[in-house]
Specification:
alpha/beta, globular, 10-stranded parallel sheet, single chain, TIM Barrel
Length: 320
């Protein structure tokens, strides 16, 4: 039975030395809902840098002095995106996401060209691979979402980033409500939704739970948990101390208890946050990881991810 907010708050604040039973409980729920299967997601940074938004953690923002850590280039053509997708499938990724910088896709002529290019890539990926198709394109409207779905899109990735009560500490160039509406619109047109947040930005445990219970209410299919990996030149890198491994593991475990049947993943920052304790993320209740590189930082090699999964007696989901 899913836990209450009061119980979740107690568990997320457990001391490290009393946290192991929480992981055991979360792992049992993962096994019940997902068995031994672990999903591997891969992404392409299809359009990078020069972002108009001021998200405090992001090196792609034009507002921050982090340009040396972030390449800037226009949208890749559909053939290049497709080639990267094929390589991801060879590494046993069963989900592939096209990610672009910026607030969203505009209704301008240039924006329409970009949407057409992304749709062309989705069609190629849909026709020639068995991976689930996903995009992360920022704020979108229903017409854009319908066009993407018609091209083969299955799942929209669109993080809320934090709870509503903390969002203004993360970004001030767009609103929490804009992000929330995109998720509601994606659901309305029949798309699956992958939505989570980034943690370690100064939010309280209570605010972490506020986000979790909203995601539960929205009935999102997948919840990516990202941990701040501080990049020089971003405001977040100057202000916040790293989360401890046990703090991250409790976060995963409590999210699993709140949403027993959802896909729960640890994505950005897992290598930085957990280091040699990475295998414990699965025992804390996660059943999804992002494999390969992230948007502007390097990730663990896919072969090492697969070995880690195998060593735990788990199995990657094979795209079919």
């Amino acid at each position: 039975m899913p836990i209450s907010f009061k119980e979740a708050l107690k568990l997320i604040n457990l001391p490290d030395e009393k946290s192991l039973p929480l992981l055991v409980r979360a792992n049992e729920l993962r096994l019940k809902a997902k068995g031994k299967k672990i999903s591997l997601c891969a992404i392409v940074n299809a359009k990078s840098g020069k972002c108009s938004e001021n998200c405090s953690f992001c090196a792609q923002s034009a507002h921050h002095a982090a340009k040396e850590h972030c390449p800037a280039y226009p949208l890749m053509n559909d053939k290049t995106t497709f080639a990267i997708a094929k390589n991801a499938q060879k590494s046993l990724a069963n989900c592939f996401s096209i990610v672009t910088s910026g607030k969203g896709i505009s209704n301008s002529i240039q924006g329409q060209k970009e949407l057409d290019t992304i749709c062309a890539a989705l069609k190629k990926i849909s026709k020639n691979t068995k991976m689930r198709r996903c995009v992360s394109l920022g704020v979108l409207n229903k017409d854009q979402l319908r066009k993407l779905k018609a091209a083969g899109l299955v799942r929209l990735h669109h993080n809320l980033e934090s709870s509503k009560s903390f969002f203004d500490n993360v970004c001030t160039t767009h609103t929490f409500e804009e992000r929330l509406q995109t998720i509601k619109d994606a659901k309305a047109v029949g798309l699956e939704v992958c939505a989570g947040g980034i943690f370690g930005l100064g939010e309280t445990p209570k605010q972490r739970l506020e986000l979790a219970f909203l995601l539960k209410e929205l009935k999102v299919e997948s919840v990516p948990i990202n941990i701040l990996n501080p990049i020089a030149g971003t405001p977040a890198a100057k202000k916040h101390k790293p989360m401890s491994p046990w703090e991250v593991l409790r976060l995963i475990a409590v999210y699993r208890l709140i949403m027993p049947k959802a896909d729960i993943g640890l994505f950005g920052g897992r290598e930085y946050a957990l280091r040699d304790l990475q295998p414990l993320l699965f025992l804390a209740g996660a059943n999804v990881i992002l494999t390969g590189d992230y948007l502007v930082t390097k990730g663990q090699k896919p072969q090492k991810d697969l070995q880690m999964i195998k060593d735990l007696g788990l199995e990657p989901v094979i795209a079919n």
